[in-house]
Amino acid sequence: MTETGAQTVRPGATGRVVRELLAEAEALLGRAAAVREDHARAVDAVRSVLDPLLSALVDQELTAIPVTRLKDVTEGRLRLTALEQAGFTTVGQVHGTARYELRLIPGVGAHTADQALAAAGQIADAVRETVSVRIDMDAPDDTTTALVVALHRLVEAGPDARRAVEAGRRLDEGLRPLVAAAAPAGSRLRMLFSGKEARRRALDAVAGVRAALAEADGQELPLLFGQVSVDLLRAPESAPGAWVDFELRSAEYYSLLAELSGSGPDRDAAEGFLPAGIADRVRALRLDDARLRVSLRGYQSFGARFALAQKRVILGDEMGLGKTVQAIAALAHLAARGERHFLVVCPASVLINWDREIRARSTLRPLPVHGPERLEVFAEWVTEGGVALTTFDALRTLPEEGLALSMLVVDEAHFVKNPATRRAQAVAARAERAEHVLFLTGTPMENRVEEFRSLVRQLRPELADVVSTTHGAAGSEAFRRAVSPAYLRRNQVDVLAELPALVHVDEWEEFSPEDLVAYREAVASGQFMRMRRAAYATPATSAKLERLRELVDEARDNGLKVVVFSYFREVLAAVGEALGPDALGPISGSLPAARRQELVDTFSAADGHAVLLSQIQAGGTGLNMQAASVVILCEPQIKPTLEHQAVARAHRMGQVRTVQVHRLLAADSVDQRMVELLARKDRLFDAYARRSDLAEAAPDAVDVSDGDLARRIVEEEQQRLARPARSE
Fold this sequence. Notes:
- This protein is α/β, with parallel strands linked by helices.
- It folds into 3 domains: about 1-265, no CATH class; about 265-495, Tandem AAA-ATPase domain (Rossmann fold, 3-Layer(aba) Sandwich), CATH 3.40.50; about 500-725, P-loop containing nucleotide triphosphate hydrolases (Rossmann fold, 3-Layer(aba) Sandwich), CATH 3.40.50.
- The chain is about 55% helix and about 10% strand.
- It has 37 helices and 15 strands.
- The strands form 3 sheets. It has a 7-stranded parallel sheet with strand order 5-6-4-7-8-3-9, with helices on both faces.
- Helix 12 packs across helix 13.
- The protein is globular, with a radius of gyration of 30 Å.
C-alpha cells in the first residue's frame, strides 16, 4: 500500500481506471482548446476589418499634427530642418514614409530617420488609444458591413464566450500539468518500477485530476464549451441580418468594439475620478458574471464592482448609462457566490421594468411583491429566495421578516431623502439588516448636498457628518473627492466613446385601476384608437403619465432637453397639463409651418432643460430637433416608420449627445399586442426598405395595413378580456 496524504491508495488503483480518467481529462482539455481556438478565429476576423479602419482613423488624425511635434517627443533632440525642406509638414507624412525613403533625403542620416520614425510611431500609438470606430447605420459601406458581420458572431455567442475562454485558460494552466504528472499512474509497470516519492506524486496528481474534473462538471463546463463552439462556428450571418441585429443590440456591438480596439473613455473618467486607493480596491474585485446574460461595458462593470467593494453606496450615473444593469450585475455576482435573498424597492411606475430587465439580463428569479397577493409572494421569497421587487408604499405593509438581506437596491433613491417619512423609515429598517445597500439616482448630488447628506446618512452616518455644503459650492470634483467612499457618478460625456449613439428603452407600465376601467370600456366599444389612448383617459391616476413626469424630472436634473411625441392631440393635452406651462407646443398638423419652426427654435435656444410636445405626424418629418437628447414616445405607432422618422429628428447630424428614446408601453394591452405583431413582420425587409428613398417618400409602402392590424388587435383583446369572465 502507498500512502498519499491522508488517503491510502492501493497499487491496483492504477492502470485502466486511471487511463480512463486521464482520457476524460484530455477530452475536456481538447474541448477547452477548441473553444479558445474558435474564439481566437472569430476575434481575428474582426481585427482583420477593424485594424485597417483604426489605422485609417489614426492616419487622419496624424495629418492634422504638425511635424514640429516630433521635437516634443524627442525632447528637442531631433533635427527637423532637412525634413521640413523636403516638404514634410505633418507627423502623418513622416509616419507613412519608409526608413529607406527618409534616408534618401539630403541631410537625413540613419540616426535621424530612426529617431523621426520612432517619434512618429509614439505619437501614432497615443492617437490610436483615443480614436474609435463609429458605425453609421444610415450610410453602410462594404467595410462597415464586413465589420458588423464579423462582430455578429461574437455578439451572438454573448458573455458565455468570454466565460468559456477564461475557463479554458484556467484548465490549461491547472489541469494540464496534473495530467502530465499523473501519467505514470496509468501504467502498473511504470508504477512498479517507480520510487516511493514518484508514486506518491503521481497518485496525488490523479487525485487532483479527479477533483478538477468534478469541479468542471459542477460548473457544466463541457456543456458550456460545446454551446459556445457551436455559436462561434455558425455560418456568417447575412449582411441584412447582421445590420438588423446591430440595430437591436448596438450597445453590445460597441462594447465589443471598445474591448477589441483598446479604445474607450479615459480610465479616470470611467471610474468617476475616484481616489486611487478606492479605485484600486474596486479594480481588484473580480466580477462573477456566471449568472448574467449580457456583456457589460467597462464603466458598467466598474460600477457593479464599486457597489460590491464599498458595500453601502449611491450610484448616481447620468440617465442613459445603465444604472439598472449595473445593479443587476452586482446582484448576479452575489447570487453566483451562493447568496439567496435580495430586495429591490422602486416606484410603482418602474416595477414591471425591473421584472423584465432581471429576466432578460440574468438568470435570477424576480418576484414582484405588490398587489393583493403580495403577502403570499413575500412568504415564498422568504422561503425560497430570489429578487423580491416591491414599491415604496408596499414595503411598509410587509412583515419584518428578520432575515439578513444580501443586497438592498433602492431605485429613484431621492424618494427617501426625507428621513421623517414612513417610506424612508421603512427603507432604513431594511438597510440596517442588509450587507450591501445600493441607492440609484440620476439626480446630480453635487447640486443637492443636503439631499445627499440625508441619503448617505442611511448608508454611512460617519461620512454624512463630514460632508458640508461648501463641498458642493467648491464644484463637482471637490464634492466627489469628499464623498468618494459612497458615491459614484459618470456623465455621458465621460464615457461617450463607449456608448452607442442611440439608446432605446421600452418603459413598461401596469395600468392603474382607473386606467384599467377606461381600457376595458375602450375594448368593449371595439374602437382601436380609443384603446390606444385609454392609458391617458384619467390623467390624475395615469401610470404612463407618472412615468413620463419622472423621466422629464430626471432630464431636468441633468439639464437635458426632451421631445415628447404622441399620435393623439388629447394625449399631448394631458401631457401638457401634467408638465405645466413650461412645456412648449404642441406642434400639430394645424399649426402653420412658420409657427412650428418658431417653437423648435425657441426649444433649441433655451438654456439647459426644455420640453417640446409634438404630434408624431407633424414633428416627425421636416423639423430638426437635434438640441434634444431625450425622446419620449407616448405610445407605439402602427407604422414603424413614424417612430424612426420622429427619432431621426433628434438623432441626426449635429447631435453631440447620446439620444435616449423612451417608449411608454402598457403591459397586457393594445401596446403589447402591437409590439408583438409588428415584431413578427419581416424585419429584414422593413430595415432595408426603411432606408430607401422610396420609404422616405412613401412610408405606407413598407408598413402593414392599418385596418388589418387594428381589427386583429381589437379581436384579440376582446377575446382575452372575455376569458376571465367566462371562467368565473
